[in-house]
Every structure is written in structure tokens, then in C-alpha cells.
Amino acid sequence: MREELEKLVGVGMLETQHVNALVMLASSGYCYHRSWGYGKITTVDTVAGRLLIDFQSKTGHGMDLVFAAQSLKAIPKDHIIARKMSDLGSLKQMAAMHHLDLVKLVLQSFGGRATADQIQQALSPDVIADDWKKWWDAAKREMKKDGHFQVPVKKTEPIVYNEQEVSQQHRLLKELRAAKGLKARVAVATELDRSAGDLTDKKAAAIETVAMLNADIASHQRTMPALALEAIFLRDDLRQVGGLEPQPGEVQPLDVWTQGAKLGEVLETLPGAKHRKALVSYRDANPNLWADGVLALLNGSTAKICGELAGMLIAEGKFDKLKETLSRLIGQHAAHSELLLWLARERENDSFADILGPELFRAMLTAIERDQFNEKKSNKLRDFILSDKNLMVELISSAELEVIKDLTRALQLSAAFDDMDKRSLLARIVKEYPVVQSLITGDQTKQDNSLIVSWESLERRKVEYEDLVKKKIPGNSKEIAVARSYGDLRENHEYKAAKEMQKVLMRRKSELEVQLNRARGTDFANVRTDVVSIGTKVTVHDVNNQKAVIFKVCGAWDSDPDNGIIAYLSPIGQALLNHPVGDEVEFELQGTKHKFRIDAIEALPPAAKPMDPAAAPTPVA
After folding, report:
1. β-pairing, 536-542 with 519-522?
2. What pTM did the predictor assign?
């Protein structure tokens, strides 16, 4: 082949620098083009001065020899790509029977090293079509036991093949000594702990590792308590592996907690597998106060951590306190969406049956709406309600029809779901309770779209909207412009924070526009007093204890329970509306049924309509 090509050089059809490239292409038989991908060279025609190549996207493609020498890269016959094109069957057999041989082939194709992602791209889905993760986990276990493969702790670092065999213990201890900082050492020490069964000298490995961890733990117990605790737990596990005794002066979990470590921050940072140990050590360090600390942390943790906290409380005989806290948070609509998400997933647990009712669903709606205004917006609870087709129906199944109607209205008015999702949820209710169909499709639906609000609450919403449009949004735009001027938006935290705030402000603007469009202001004048109406003061007494209570039924945005002011859309307001003196009404609140007898109905003093904005004095900034 070389002689023929050199003849072409002699007659001026090729240049000397093209010969070596063409010889390599002809001898390997496989090539790569940056636009057409990998191909198999089927014919080298020196007479016509062309190559014929079967690319993945086009077969029988002809290419001039000069152009081929300049644009193609030769691929060796034993390269994984060439093997896939020439003998895919044997590679699949190798994948099934000899994991390490296949990984070695891939690594050698990439010069002896490749990342996990590169290996996956080379093998999946052509060679390994099903369950890559299962195959790769098995291959990694074999590589770690084999002395030729260097498997890094970080996934982004390359796996290296060494011709000279190195024991796993020797390799891990070498990495441990080279690791900089406690975090890096914990990562390597964790691998040592997991590989304990394959270590050649467990005691020697444990002695060296424990000593290194102890030296770093002491300097991190105050500044990085979660990492220090993780290292302490790991140190104690490795001591057991090596059969070592504790040494005097070692830092213990109690030392970390007494340095002021906060349970919430520790659990957020610590790996999930260490949560239970952390909670046990927190309990031991705070024998009299630990339960209160755990309960206080429930409302604000992730759903997973909520499960760990609840499990600890139940295991330690604190279930009644847990249930009391959950009932209070749900009743006050103060429960965070992550806590409610955990509770929704736990609804198969009969122990929580009496709090898994309609009030829980109402609290979920409140939490989802509240999430829309959080800087770190979360849709997990909303998505769970949409995906779990039985949840909503199960929660409202114990409610009376009037409560179900009220929940239907609340869902209709909620801005937390788009129209399509809202229709889907409403359809689930209608399927179980066809009687509420008229609320959704009839005239009542049109009427319910309007909100009757007091002039005072309407003015507050308008002031908030004006402040948003005239001050906060323009101010945020300036912040974005300033932050953008700092350059490199990928690492510009000020820019990212300002853009996130922009989303929050624009979302709130849209919400206020919808609310204000639906609002109908009233001064509560000339209200009916023959029945409970919006704008009436209602005196009732509790049928069970004969205690007198006064409610002031006001607009949709009015609520001051301490002073008896309730919104007409609230459960109490809905129960009282349109009933005359002498009627008895029932409603459920916080899981408890109440029965009141109406004693008197009076009109509230009319509320003054606010001054026309054009005539109002200009507010002082």
C-alpha cells in the first residue's frame, strides 16, 4: 500500500505528508469524521484516488484520498468503536461473562483511563442494552477487588488501568495519605470501611486510618460539626473492623454537641445513612431536651428527614407528643409542604388515621400556595397530589357534604394549580361526590369566582400591588443590571439571586392581578339580619358547654380569630351563612366537630370606603 501511495506522490496526485495518514487508515480499516461519526473503510482505490467508507449515517460514501488524509482519523482495529462495528456479538458475550475484560478494552481504547460517563457512552445501549446501573455496579465491585484498576472516589475522576497489580488496601491507604482535608479523608475512609472484607491486614489499615481521622476531627468539631460527627461514626466503625480499643482523649459525639452544633444543620449536611446515629448521639447529649428539639425541627425539614425524626420519636415512646404537634400544625395551617408530603406518604400508617382528614388537605392547599412565594420554590407536594390519584379522595372521605363542597370551592379558587391540573383534581371529587358537579359547571361557579372583600383589605392588596409594580420590580431590575455587570454569569451568585427574586416578584404580581380582578369591595351596609350574612355580628353559644361566642362574618381576606373576625369562606363562616336565629349549625375544625346555636344577628357598623387615590395625599416614602 505504501509503495502505491508513493507512486501517486511521484506523479503529483498526493503530497508526502499524506502518505502516513493514508497507510494508517488503510491498515486499521476504521476511521472517525467529526461530522459523520465513525465509519468502516471498505475500499482503498489508488487508481481512482478514492476511499469508500460505510459511515453510521451513510454507506458507500466516496472520499478523495487527499481529503480523507486531511479530515479522517484512523481508529485501531482493537478500539471499542471498531469492535462494535466489526464484532458486536462477541462484545455482548464479554459483557455477560467477563466484566473486567470489557472495561479494560474500553480503558485501553481511551489511552488507559476514562470516566464512568465515557465508559457508559461507549457501551450503552449498543453492548449493554438493559439495566446499565446494575451491570456497572457489579463491574465496579470486581474492579475494586482486582489489583489492576484504580477506581476513584469521585465519579468525575477517571478510572485507570495499571499493568502492575496493586492491592486494594495499598491503593486506598495511598489515597488516604494523599487526601487533603477531613472531607476527602472521610470519602476514602468510607471506601475502606465498605471494602473491609477484602483488606489484607484489617488491623494495620484501621490503626492508620483511625489515627488520621482523630487528628482532623479535633480541628473540625466546632467549625464543621456534621463532618466531624460523620468522621467520628466512621472512626468507630473502622475500630471495630480492626479490633481496636478506644484511645483516651478522642473526640466523642458529646464533645461536638456541647460545642453548639445545631441538629437541623447537622442533619441537612450529614449523609442519610448517618442520620439515626446522629439523632441517638443528640439524645444522649441532651437527655431532658432532645424530644423538644426534634419536634421543633419537624416543621422545616425535608420529607426524608421528617421521617427520620418521627421514627426516632416513636421509637423513644414520644408518639403522643408527635401526634399533638402534627395536629396543631395542621389545624393552624402552619405545616410546611415537606412535612405534609411525608405525612401523605405515611397515610397507610393507621396510627395517624385521625389526623388524615379533610383539614389535612386544606392545610396542603395552604402550604402549596405559600410555596409559590418562597424564594426556593418547591412543587413536590403539588406534584405528589397530582400523581397520587387516591390521596385527595381518601383525605376527604370522612368529611360531611358541606365540608366537601367547601373544599371544592377552595380548590377552585386556589392559584396553586393550572387549569388543566385543577380540572383533573375536581374530576376526582365529582367522581366520588357527583352532587358537587353544580359547583363546578353551574351558575354557582360563576358566582363563586367573585370575592366579596372589605374596603380595608382591598386597599391593602392595592397598596401591595402598587409597591410591587412601582418599587420592588424596578428595584429588582436595577439589581439584575448591576449584578450582570460583574461578569461570568455562571459563577455570579448576586445575579442568580436577583433573577430568582425576579421570578418571585413576577409570580406575586400575577397572583395579585388575578385576586384584584375578582375582588368586589363592600362596606357591609344594608346587610340582611334575618339570617347570617356577610357583614353581620353573630352571637352563638356552644351547645355542649353553653359558652357564648361572638363571630363577625367579614370579607374573604378578613381574618382575626382572636377578635372574632372570620372570613365568610372559612369553615365557620360557611357553616353560619344563611341561617336564622334559633338554628343549630355544625362544622368540623381541626378534626373536632362543633355545634352552635345562633342567639342573635346584628349588622356590623358600615366600613368607610377609602378615599379616591387621586384625591388622597401622596404617601411619604
Report:
1. unpaired
2. 0.53
